[in-house]
Structure formats: structure tokens, C-alpha cells
Amino acid sequence: MNYDLTPEQLSIKENFSKFCTKEIEPRAHILDEADHEEVKKLIKENIKLMASIGYLGMGHDEAYGGTNLDLISQAIAGEEVAAACASTFLSCGSSSGLFGVPVKLFGTDAQKKKYLPGIIKGEIIGCFGLTEPGAGSDAASIKTTAVKQGDKWILNGTKTFITNATIADVALIFAYNDKAKGPGSGVTCFLVDKGTKGFSVGKPFDKMGFRGSPTAELILEDCEVSEDAILGKVGHGFIQAMQTLEYGRIGMATVSLGIAAKCLQHANKYSKERTAFGKPINRFQEVSFKLADMMILSDVSRLLIYQAAWAKQTNNPESAIMASVAKVWASEAATQISSMAVQVFGGYGYIKEFPVERLYRDAKLGEIGEGTSEIQRVMIAKDLIRKYAA
How far apart are CA 51 and CA 90, in angstroms? Predict the structure, then answer.
């Protein structure tokens, strides 16, 4: 088995590292400290910057302006973006990934032509509307409804914790068109454009972390859309959402890895420069062992992410479980690593002037978003029981 990156992948890593270090990382602290209105302006600029280097088109077809690169290459680039600014990774991923991927996989030619070129250029921003106030982990219990009236559909409901809600030009909305059929064949996905009558956005949430990526509710009150707003087939929405979230879990694992890698970088540098008792603190086992653990945890995260990306790319039947494994490990590793980084910095790690404070707050989302660690373990356990049932 060859673990070497290809020359193209090495070039991607180098180019994205240089670009993000220069253009994105200096803005991360500013984004984190900005008020909601300023965040909207700054994150749109960052999305455009990432579009300029081709990041938003890596997973999309050349016909629409993308480069259609493999998932490992996307993870390599994503780690560099996340290390520079986790909020930028999240908003870019919500638009080109959670919105763009289902349009790519299930959309009509007309829908792809309408949205994908703009998504790839950063001129259109998308979002993914599945989660509701009473339906997070239990996504099948969504209450948003879609009722057909003539050649129109009337949508009613509220979506919550929606990344990019306040800056999105278009949203994917998942709604029950036939509750009796259950989620497997009773949920439909709709494309709802900003400005559609009955479609509004709530107040931005004041979050602990990822403060540079806006999050809010989407509200649908007798929101009327046409038949051509349906993504894919009527009744296939929940299946589309679950397939999309496999990509999303690899993405959430990747942003966790980026946070972890940046924490290790900061802690390693600081521990060489900070002296105590007459020598650099990295000469003390209490600190050096933390650095060693940070490297072990982050390296395993990277390997699991690459494995999950490879499995999804090759249509391996185990890809969904591999994505769950990668997400659980990488997200929980990131919270541990960020905590260790703060500890290495001591009191300075608790001050907003130092980046590990922000990284510590950002890390926690990995264990919650795109399916909690608990839900991932439920899925992994069910798969194990199924495989090894007597």
C-alpha cells in the first residue's frame, strides 16, 4: 500500500497552504471578533477568495467551471483552509458541498446550469435546510410540510442551526409531502431562492465558536414554489439528505483535523520559545508528552479521513461507516488537542489575543454538527451487530 501523495496532491497542499496563510489566516481573528453585519461582509469576501483559487469547484464537473478532483485531494485542500480559518471552511463547505453536491447528484440540467457555475465562482451562496428545532439527531421527525396545490407547492415550517442562512441566495429545504409514507418515500427536497414570498431568515445565533460563519433559522410561511423547484424525485428527499451527509461527515472530520493541526503548530512553536526554570518548556516531559499526543491523535485523524475519502470515491459499501469513524475520531481528537494546546500556553491560552483560545471554542462543534458523536456510535454499533450477528 502506497501512502505517498501524488505530485498533484503535493502541489495542492503547498499551493493552498501558501494562499490560505497569506489571504485567509490573517482574517480569522477579525471574523471571530466581528459583529453579525460585518461577519456577513467578511465571510462573503472569503468565499470569493476561496473561489479564486478553485476551492469551491474541486468537487464539481468541468462543464460548470469545476475541476472534479478526487475526495482525498479535496480533504488535503480542506485541511489547509480549516487550519487557516475554520469558519471559512464551514461556510464554503455549506455552499459548495452541502448545497452543491446534492444539486450535482440529483439536479436537472436546468438546475445545475442555474446554480452550480455561480456556486463555484462564489457569486451564489447556498445552504442546507434539514435540521429543525425539534429534529436534530432524529432528522426523520422534521415537521416542515409541502402541500401540492395545482402546479405549485406550499411549504410551511422552520429550519434551525442553518449555516449561511443570513448570506444564502438559495436553500435546500427538506419537507414531508406525505407523512404516512415516512421518511423513506415521504420527504421531498426543494430549491428555495432568497426573496421567495413566505421565505424569511431569523436572527443570527450568537455562537460559542465558528463565529465567522453565520448561523440562523429559515422560516417558511405559506412559501410557494413551482414544480421545477423539486430536487430529484418527489419522496426521495430524505435519502438524498442522508447520502449528502456522508460527504458532510468527511468534511466535518476535515475541519476538525485542520483545527487540530493548527493547535499543534501553535503549541509546538510556543513551547520552543517560552522558557521556565531556565529552559524551553518543551524540554519538560509534561509538555513534550502533550505535543506527542497531539501528533498521534492528529495523524490518526488524517489517515482515517483519507480512508473514508478513498472509500467514498471508490463506492466502497463500507464508506458510510468509515465516514462516521473518521468523524468521531477526528472531532473528539480536535477537542482534546485544542484543550492541550491551551494548557501548553497556560494563562496566555485563555486570552483572546492568542489563537488557541479561538481554536478551542471552534473545536467543539465537530462533535455536534453533521451528526453527533453519539449518533455516529449508534450507526457504527448497528453496523457491527449486523455484520457479526449469530
Answer: 14
Domain boundary among 193, 221, 238: 238
Kindly state whether residues 203 and 287 are assigned to the same domain: no
The answer to whether 38 and 364 have CB atoms below 8 angstroms apart is no
| CATH code: domain of residue 383 | 1.20.140.10
- Assign residue 87 the CATH number of its domain: 1.10.540.10
d(CA 188, CA 44): 29
The reply to whether 210 and 304 lie within a common domain is: no
What's the CA gap between 239 and 244, in Å, rounded?
A: 9
Greatest CA span in the chain, whole angstroms?
A: 80
DSSP-derived pairing of the beta strands 170-176 and 126-129: parallel
Residues 192, 291: one domain?
Answer: no
pLDDT in tens, the chain (390 residues): 789 999 999 999 999 999 999 999 999 999 999 999 999 999 999 999 999 999 999 999 999 999 999 999 999 999 999 999 999 999 999 999 999 999 999 999 999 999 999 999 999 999 999 999 999 999 999 999 999 999 999 999 999 999 999 999 999 999 999 999 999 999 999 999 999 999 999 999 999 999 999 999 999 999 999 999 999 999 999 999 999 999 999 999 999 999 999 999 999 999 999 999 999 999 999 999 999 999 999 999 999 999 999 999 999 999 999 999 999 999 999 999 999 999 999 999 999 999 999 999 999 999 999 999 999 999 999 999 998 876
- Cell numbers at residue 294, please? 497531539
Torsion 306-310-312-317 (CA) sign: negative
With beta carbons less than 8 A apart as the criterion, state whether 56 and 121 touch.
Answer: yes
Q: Give CA angle at 310 (171, 334), nearest 5°.
A: 70
How many domains is the chain partitioned into structurally?
3
Counting beta carbons within 10 angstroms of the beta carbon of residue 284, is it exposed (0 to 12), middle (13 to 18) or buried (19 or more)?
middle
State which residues form the domain around 65.
7-125
Catalytic positions: 370
Residue type at position 246: E
Residues contacting residue 18 through CB under 8 Å, at least 6 positions apart = none
Q: Do 76 and 182 belong to one domain?
A: no
- Which residues lie across from 170 on neighbouring strands? 126, 193
